[in-house]
Amino acid sequence: MTSKNKKPMELYVHIPFCARKCLYCDFLSFRALASVHEAYTAQLIREIEAQGAFCREYQVTTIFIGGGTPSVMEPCLIADIMRALKYHFDVAEDAEITIEVNPGTLLYNKLHIYREAGINRLSIGLQSTDNRELRDLGRIHTFEEFLKSFQCARMVGFSNINVDLMSSIPGQTLESFKNTLKKVAMLKPEHISAYSLIIEEGTPFWDHYGQGAAGGWRSAGQDGKEHPMAADGPAFPPLPDEDTESRIYHLTRTFLTEQGYGRYEISNYAKPGHECRHNIGYWTEVPYLGLGLGASSYLGGCRFSNTSDLDMYLGLDFNRAPEEVLEQLHGPLQELSREARMEEFMFLGLRLTKGVSGIDFVSMFGIKLETVFGPVMERLISDGLLEKNGVWISLTEWGMDVSNYVLSEFLLS
């Protein structure tokens, strides 16, 4: 089968290791010894070989190496993973290949090896240019370290860089976030992701903010350890109030637009031609395969996830019948119903500023968009939350502001 006849597919590779868990993080990530990094990489390569044998009809258009903090590993391990991916999958010549990196773990030699391995896009987790805010998030880097990492990336030749920013974090003000936006925009990265902090259950931030609990954590001290909260007062400054959150949200959109960044998704901005192809694939239902511990997949109309148990993952014997091992790795498959796929078409597609296409809906489901969602769309258009432009339906600016509510209206049951 020639590449032009193959179906597109994306790959996500999960590296669960990090230098230290951030206080807001609920991702599958943890510290581990270098020997564990090596054992995990060897097993991941075995999984890549096994999975690749069942994906001959696909061509890989994007690869995203995420975590955790992939840059915490020795760069030769990342290069080994890249070699395995290219050998066992049909990776398109123009594939977008991204790696997530943390400024506190990024050195010049790592960047050089990433480039040689074929990685052509960096996603740098900055979050804030205010060092106090970074400490209160539990980040291990400073703004100055980020600047050095960014400069090194440019020197090595990376011309497609995303910078992650976070708003609504402890002690943040409208002015401090404006300073963050200004400092980052001056560097002219090709892409900026600007997400609002979500307090997730099971994190130290949940213990302090999410439940209003008396217990909590101090931000990391000079010894790099987390210290229990003192009884005489809160460990962290308060979260911004709703009015400040709203001002920050609208400032982000206005300021980045003025700086030449187009908003193409609720929380993502890019210079023309530098929209993240991998994420757009998620939002437009391009099939994707997750590789590594806890990685999720959507392939053949089914969703499945790898085991999150590291010992179980490392103990899998890929020398046995591949089908049996992969079944053990994935667990039960969730086959999406037609109605569930219609819901996801709307949930995911409406996150994009261009919205969803009625033509694409008919092509995918054999029925008109209006036949399924007509009354809901008419009401939301009348309320000023949706707008129709030819075959396209998209969120208005106000609809973007209350997107969670709008998207929930497309539940079919």
UniProtKB/TrEMBL annotation:
The gene is hemW. NCBIfam families: hemN_rel. This is Heme chaperone HemW. SUPFAM superfamilies: Radical SAM enzymes. PROSITE patterns: RADICAL_SAM. Keywords: 4Fe-4S, Chaperone, Cytoplasm, Heme, Iron, Iron-sulfur, Metal-binding, S-adenosyl-L-methionine. Belongs to the anaerobic coproporphyrinogen-III oxidase family. HemW subfamily. It is found in: Cytoplasm. Residues 3-237 form the Radical SAM core domain. Probably acts as a heme chaperone, transferring heme to an unknown acceptor. Binds one molecule of heme per monomer, possibly covalently. Binds 1 [4Fe-4S] cluster. The cluster is coordinated with 3 cysteines and an exchangeable S-adenosyl-L-methionine. Transmembrane segments: none annotated. InterPro entries: Aldolase_TIM, Coproporphyrinogen-III_oxidase, Elp3/MiaA/NifB-like_rSAM, HemN_C, HemW-like, rSAM, rSAM_sf.
